[in-house]
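Hi F.,

I've been meaning to write this up properly since the lab meeting, where we talked about keeping a consistent format for the predictions we share between groups. The idea is simple: the sequence comes first, exactly as it goes in, then the structure tokens exactly as they come out, then a line or two of notes. No screenshots and no reformatting. I'm using this chain as the first example so we have something concrete to point to.
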Amino acid sequence: MDLARPDLRPDPSLSRDEMEALQRDIAAAAAFDDDHALDPSAMGVEEATSLADGLPPARDGAQERLGTGDEEGKVADTTPDPDAPTVVGVDQAFLTDRGEDHPDAAVSAAVAFRGGSVVEYASATTPLSIPYIPGLLAFREGEPILAALDALDADPDLLICDGSGRIHFREAGLATHVGVLRDVPSVGVAKSLLCGEPDESTAERPEGWRTPVRADDAVTTAEPGTVIGHAFQSRQYPNSRRVNPLYVSPGHRVSAESAVEFVAALCAGYKLPEPTRLADAHAERVKRDAD
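Output, unedited:
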């Protein structure tokens, strides 16, 4: 798929100052208000997928398309509602320390959901060009994710990314960068807080609890106090509240309020929303096959 803003593509050869300048351009191009017709109730997942016997087959009869050109047949089951929105979760695994003949690589996975069921798996394995640098994740993982999305037949109505969106030093986390490049509504779901300040303490909160996260002095592109996302308690143990919340933020064309409603609809008993939970499992499966 052609990119809406190819000039904003994450180039890992840039200097750090150039990367940060590009992120400010991404933030300026991003829309942090709702620009979609998506309804959380139309994408809800009622029952979590058990992975005890591996990943479930896609249910529309499509074939898995891997970035390496390989294909695996799928077993068709019931056909999901074709009018339901297509939600795509993306996550990654990494191939490292494999010797001089096998450079480090990213295994990027995309899993498309429709009507609460998986309709397609895709992946791409691409070289890793730079190490992880806090705040510059898109320059390490953005191109691999774009490759996995290009391997999908399905056109996403919503992207759920394992990483931050607007909760970012320059309001340009991975979900924002990819969302702007593809001009598709996107949401970032992070397991830790990169920056910003929650309105309330996040410790030992019950399932379903949420509180706004506001820009603090670490966010250089937003007025202090701006709501840039939410802390969301997606799962909790009733007798021992040890599970930490997720940090959910808009990527592009989604408001902070809608972002957390989408994630709440997509969580089904596990901490992570189903699209990224299965994308994580799919990336690990491809990684195992590559080793």
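Notes:
The radius of gyration is 18 Å.
The domain at 21-290 is CATH 3.30.2170.10 (archaeoglobus fulgidus dsm 4304 fold).

If this format works for you, I'll send the rest the same way.

G.
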